[in-house]
């Protein structure tokens, strides 16, 4: 029996945002960091990032880090977010493993 | 030095955005918009990337204000706003500037603009048809300025509407295979 019905793939943007938020980071920092760790392949649009952050806050996968100063808002991963990230890592590993088994093991050319 | 350019361009935001970025690449930086008037300042070639976004709510709505604050914290300057339309720029040296990088959000954005343009086209086309009927039925010439302008608006907006509708269809099929 499936444990949960919510086991769909995460979007690339969400995956990278969650990875970034292992450390508290503000919006600008998330954009910069994702650009960096993906070697410039993944660009987070401002609207896309804003939408994703709001959805992730609602889902409680991330939360606003409490700061006493009036500085920029920082976000951090919650235990629930961490759990989701680990599940996604397993899913991705399985994809790569299956792909390798089928593609890597055989020669598909005649 | 400031310069003003009058241009009837707002009906196609893609062309408008391309134009603002072309100007910026020549060092003519867009700084303000009001009623078909674009204000520019002399600056440095290629210093800024410009983007236009259609917001969910009007600019002064709390939700929009919240978003604008988020943008400014992310190093994006909100230059000008009119209705739901927001003009933004970011220093090119601070990395690429895109608004929507996922297909779902791009689809939503294009649907919004398609519906907005579609409403204008349909209302003006109806008015045009109504005026034509008036002319033939009553042999009365309706107010020509009004009849003429609804026809012109229909003709100007129709190709834009069709291009947005096409874009929505393309994105819908793309979303079946990608995110």
Question: Could you explain how this protein is built, in words?
Answer:
The complex is a heterodimer of chains A (110) and B (179). Chain A has 4 helices and 3 strands, in the order H-E-H-H-E-E-H. Chain A is mostly helical and 110 residues long. Chain A has a single domain (12-105), classed as Orthogonal Bundle (Arc Repressor Mutant, subunit A), CATH 1.10.10.10. In chain A, strands 1-3-2 form a 3-stranded antiparallel beta sheet. In chain A, strand 2 (62-65) and strand 3 form a beta hairpin. Chain A is elongated, with a radius of gyration of 17 Å. Helices cover 51% and strands 21% of the residues of chain B. Chain B is built from 4 helices and 6 strands, in the order βαβββαββαα. In chain B, a hairpin with a 2-residue loop joins strand 2 and strand 3. Chain B starts with a strand and ends in a 5-residue tail after the last helix. The model of chain B has no long low-confidence stretch (mean pLDDT 89). Chains A and B meet through helix 2 and helix 3 of A and helix 2 and helix 3 of B.
Which helices and strands occur, and which strands form pairs?
The complex is a heterodimer of chains A (110) and B (179).
Chain A: H1 12-20, E1 25-26, H2 27-37, H3 46-58, E2 62-65, E3 74-77, H4 79-105
Antiparallel strand pairs in A: 1-3, 2-3
Chain B: E1 2-6, H1 13-25, E2 28-34, E3 37-42, E4 48-54, H2 62-73, E5 77-82, E6 85-91, H3 103-138, H4 144-174
Antiparallel strand pairs in B: 1-3, 2-3, 4-6, 5-6
Helix pairs in contact in B: 3-4
